[in-house]
Design a protein that fits this description.
CATH superfamily of the largest domain: Vaccinia Virus protein VP39
Bound molecules: S-adenosyl-L-homocysteine, thymidine-5'-phosphate, zinc ion
Number of strands: 17
Radius of gyration: 21 Å
CATH topology of the largest domain: Rossmann fold
CATH architecture of the largest domain: 3-Layer(aba) Sandwich
Strand content: 15-25%
Number of domains: 3
Helix content: 25-40%
Structural class: alpha/beta
Length: 404
């Protein structure tokens, strides 16, 4: 790679997960079987410390017509968006406020914004996901958010008081284009709020499966503060979030407009004290991944040798990294259940494990189930109480391999 996407500095690789498929490119069992592969590796910029993929994939390959992920599959996330809307809408001006959501997928924050009677617009390039949002009566532009899209929105609708984005800004390799778009679109006193997996939580849990094609960046507060400044904005607030295995919500505004909250300084001090973006902490991620690669397939082989049936739960994008890095295919995990209609009936990328609807889980229950959707553990374990009651056991691998 030519250099850091944020500052042009040299990027030093610290973990390499080898040849990988696109994490949301599920395979048609009746198709040609051809898959696009790339080298999944992650590094840190020596100058601005931003942690990023070293070999990015073109955005059109990932966020295409039938990109299958659907936000609405998680009840907890629906509640998270409702709560978030209540908090963020309270800070908007009284007169005809306008909210733009980048990467709204099939709804995101917008249903709650609409329900509050606030004008909203989603921007998402994945055609079927955006159509699902439109079918719910939401207003969506089926486009990538960048400077051009932002200018068009501004011309058509006026400035945005809030630009919100969940689990999307880290998916966009060209951060400069995001901030250029925000600059065109954001009202003078507006806020740009985005939330993504936090490097601190990824490292503390050795959650190496957060490294996927779509997670172009793993954000920490220091590098995001510096990137915002470079692109002409201030980081004015941060808030840790418990969703998706630990995230950070970043609030950005035009320079000098708001005084940064004490949470920003506290988070920066904590990151410095723990050496979060330093080489030793980052090397821990590769070591954690190797541990899982040594232990998880061995456990599955033992169980299979003993005649046990093992399934998976949650055909997550993250699980592509785990199964392909660890060499786990249908001979070790017979099938994986997932509630997303666009994944069912297909095979997991690379590892080619059949994806079945959740109803298949109890028909009959397997002996063991690998919880690939570990970030939805509470919701799934509550929903699938019957599995434990029938003697089934969950296999976890974050933060380490264990049977529960
Ligand atoms: N916000 C949702 C969806 C996250 S998945 C949630 O938190 O659950 C990421 C979404 O971002 C996908 O729907 C994808 O199509 C969209 N996306 C990717 N690049 C984008 C871009 N440049 N502009 C707008 N949306 C983008
Ligand atoms: P995510 O970790 O990227 O959000 O993906 C979670 C996957 O797990 C997604 O494909 C939907 C699936 N899922 C279920 O099958 N059942 C559930 O109860 C939940 C919450 C998610
Ligand atoms: Zn840099």
């Amino acid at each position: 790679m030519s250099g850091c996407r944020v500052c042009g500095g040299p990027v030093h690789e610290f973990a390499d997960f080898g040849r990988q498929p696109l994490s949301d490119a599920f395979v048609d069992p009746g198709g040609t079987g051809d898959e696009f592969l790339f080298r999944l590796a992650v590094g840190r910029c020596a100058r601005c410390r931003m942690v990023q993929l070293t070999e990015p994939v073109p955005r059109e390959r990932m966020f295409r017509y039938d990109y299958p992920y659907r936000s609405s599959q998680s009840a907890r996330m629906r509640r998270h968006f409702d709560r978030t809307a209540r908090t963020l809408l309270a800070g908007l001006p009284a007169r005809d406020p306008f909210v733009v959501e980048i990467g709204c997928n099939d709804g995101g924050l917008m249903p709650a914004v609409d329900a509050a009677g606030v004008r909203s617009l989603g921007v998402d390039p994945s055609v079927l996901a955006a159509k699902a949002a439109a079918d719910r009566g939401l207003r969506v532009r089926t486009e990538f958010f960048d400077a051009g899209t932002a200018a068009a929105v501004r011309a058509a609708e006026g400035p945005a008081d809030l630009i919100y984005s969940a689990n999307t800004i880290s998916h966009i390799d060209d951060l400069a284009s995001v901030f250029a778009g925000v600059d065109r679109l954001l009202a003078p006193a507006g806020r740009f709020v985005f939330e993504d997996p936090y490097l601190g939580d990824v490292l503390s849990q050795s959650a190496f499966d957060q490294v996927i094609d779509e997670h172009f960046y793993l954000f920490a507060v220091g590098p995001v503060r510096d990137a915002a400044r470079r692109f002409g904005f201030d980081l004015v607030d941060v808030e840790p979030l418990p969703v998706h295995g630990g995230e950070m919500r970043f609030t950005v505004a035009r320079p000098g407009r708001y005084r940064p909250t004490p949470a920003v300084g506290a988070a920066l001090a904590r990151e410095d004290a723990t050496g979060l973006t330093g080489a030793p902490a980052l090397r821990g991620l590769a070591a954690g991944a190797e541990r899982v690669r040594a232990e998880l397939p061995a456990l599955l082989r033992r169980l299979r040798a003993g005649g046990r049936v093992v399934a998976g739960y949650g055909a997550t994008a993250k699980s592509a990294t785990v199964t392909n890095y660890c060499g786990i295919g249908p001979e070790l995990v017979a099938f994986v259940c997932d509630s997303t209609p666009g994944k069912q009936g297909l095979l997991t990328p690379g590892s080619r494990i059949p994806v079945r609807p959740p109803e298949a889980f109890a028909d009959p229950y397997p002996d063991y189930a690998v919880l690939f959707a570990w970030n939805h553990a509470e919701e799934i374990m509550a929903k699938e109480r019957g599995f434990r009651a029938a003697g089934g056991r969950w296999i976890r691998y974050v933060p380490d391999v264990r049977v529960v």
